[in-house]
Design a protein that fits this description.
The complex is a heterodimer.
Chain A lengths: L4 E4 L5 H14 L3 E4 L5 H10 L6 H13 L5 E3 L2 E4 L10 H4 L1 H8 L5 E3 L2 E3 L6 H12 L4 H24 L4 H10 L11 E7 L1 H4 L8 H7 L2 E4 L6 H5 L12 H14 L6 E7 L3 H16 L4 E6 L5 H21 L1
Parallel strand pairs in A: 1-2, 1-3, 3-5, 4-6, 7-8, 7-9, 9-10
Helix pairs in contact in A: 1-7, 1-8, 2-3, 6-7, 7-8, 12-13
Chain B lengths: L1 E3 L7 H10 L3 E2 L7 H10 L6 H15 L4 E5 L7 H14 L5 E5 L6 H11 L6 H29 L7 H15 L3 H15 L11 E7 L1 H5 L7 H7 L2 E5 L3 H9 L6 H7 L11 H13 L4 E7 L3 H17 L3 E6 L5 H22 L7
Parallel strand pairs in B: 1-2, 1-3, 3-4, 5-6, 5-7, 7-8
Classes of the chains: A alpha/beta, B alpha/beta.
Chain lengths: 328, 364
Amino acid sequence: MGQKKVGFPMTLMYYLHYPLWKVFFEELGFEFITSIPTNKVILDEGVKVTVTDACVPIKLIHGHVLELKDRVDYILIPRMVNADREKNITFCPKFLGLPDMIRASIPDLPSIIDARVDRKSGRFYLFNACKGIGEQFDKPFMTILRAYRKAVSALKKFENLMEEKLLLPQEGIEVLFNDSPPETESPGDLNIAVLGYPYQVYDTYISADIVGNLRKMGVRVWSMEMVPYSTLKKYAGKLKKKLFWHLSNRVIWANYHYLNQPQIDGVIHVSAFACGPDAMVDKIMELECKQRNFPFLNITVDEHTGEGGVLTRLEAFLDMIRLRRGGA
Amino acid sequence: MKFSFPHMGTSHVAFKYLLENLGYEVINPPTPSKKTITLGARYSPEFACMPFKVLLGTYMEVLDKGAEAIVTSGGIGPCRAGFYGVLHEKILKDMGYDFKMIILDPPLYDIKEFFNTVSLLRPKKIGWRGFINVVKDSWAKLCALDEMEKEANLVRAYEVNKGDTTKKVNEIIEVIDAASTRKEIMGLQEKSISMLHEVPQNKLRKPLKIGLIGEIYVVIEPFMNYDIERLLGEMGVIVHRSIYVTEYTRHTIWDRKAEDYIKEAAKPYLELMIGGHGVNSVGETILYAQDGYDGVIQLAPFTCIPEIVSKSILVKVSEDYGIPVLTLHIDEQTGEAGIRTRIEAFLDLLHQKRSLSGKEGMAK
């Protein structure tokens, strides 16, 4: 009997949890593969099967699942409920209903592993999710425990790489699994915080490679993953009421954090077309930056974003900052 | 201090009564109009949903009229609406308005906070007992309004002369608005229903039955949905609305278990609360199908997160249960003619379906 294959869409949670799931499933004896990076075909196929009003990330994951579905025996779509102990903070409702949504809109799927990741289930919430999966495949408890421990330590290493070595998720994954030494980044004359949901910012196709392009323009890019969660949480009291969504809170808090860092010259918020939470997040960030007279640029990406349009706006934004600096 | 609050269906009658009897001056929120939405949309984030924009527009209108405080509801998420009050305040203050925003979060979120906010509303000269009495009376008015609207939907489908019911409804609203003594208020429910029965009806008709589901604000506020209940009623359809202000309040504040049967029904399709009315939309569609309704219309504001999730699941529910579902997404560009055409086509389909299945005699 050959190894069973588990597929993981290379979007959404990929940028947060890939090392965890990869190590865990491989330890359990599965072959673990991802879908290919986003391209036009994935996007177009995703658009076809998704309800018209959905946001771009949801359309994308549908495309990624379609790309995977004939190549694997299982597809892993964790049901992301919660990653914070605070009450009333969850992931976006679309994440909560994601496995149900995908089952309803794509026919003939391989079986979906929809482990529930819920911080409220206790300190070992990730273990609870892993245990559920392991039991589904009749693995002995000790095997699950061993796999879980290795998986979590991989996740820790991954997070440390981002926080201490200041790597971006994709670079972190490269270093972790391919042992390729990270490219040392040239300092650049401008420091810009590029904030947004990881599956928007780092998906080079959908974001028109904002990060790569900024670097080419001599910018040192700062991300929200570089700030440890415990530091971010210090900014939780800044708003009258916390937002209800984990990732949105992270973006907002990172915004406050970078506003207080003297080396940062400006903030770019990458948001998705028709993203519900972003409508709120973006406005708050805009108002905060406006109050402090801090350069702020919003880039909304959708199915039709062209690289040209994005580049022009980035250039204009950087020119403006350089001008300001020269004049000051 | 001059108070105001959001406009939502007919509920302003009761809220006005509440605040006035607490001794505040009330600026009545105007019925939302094209102007409201234009104002609101100009200062809202592009992808905020329609309710956000309409509320922002309404607030600007009442603030221009001199309101100094706005009372609104909060929420616990994960639907965005729970955060709207906070963001509205931020945007309005950035625009230079000076006012006080009072946000009522459900007591389960933070019971202490809830009482603090409520006692903010209670003027010093009115004791708790008096305060509670005023709240009770306003609640009774709210209930009377809701019961009246429910009955109106039944009567309208049978009315002999088009428009009679709606005229009567407007009369009744005035009566409810005018009632001021406890005795009058307690009799309102009965009175309004008997007034509705004065409308001449043709009981020989066999109207279609349609369930109305979706996001609370677009379902309840007639301006948002082009008065769909009236539109359908006057086409001879019995409309059952799934959400009323009183039920919603009851279910979010003290009777959390009341909706369990809806969640139970939705469970095979959607396991988890996804906020807003997403789970309800799925569960209610199944229940409507089981109760022999002819169809379901889902109303959702453009970019509403929970309703998008339920919409994609409803396709499957509709197939499995054989109940037609029409989803209307509403944004600032929606026109009445478009809505009307789609509803007419939907009704034609339902009539056809009914005559094919020979169900004619069965419908009540």
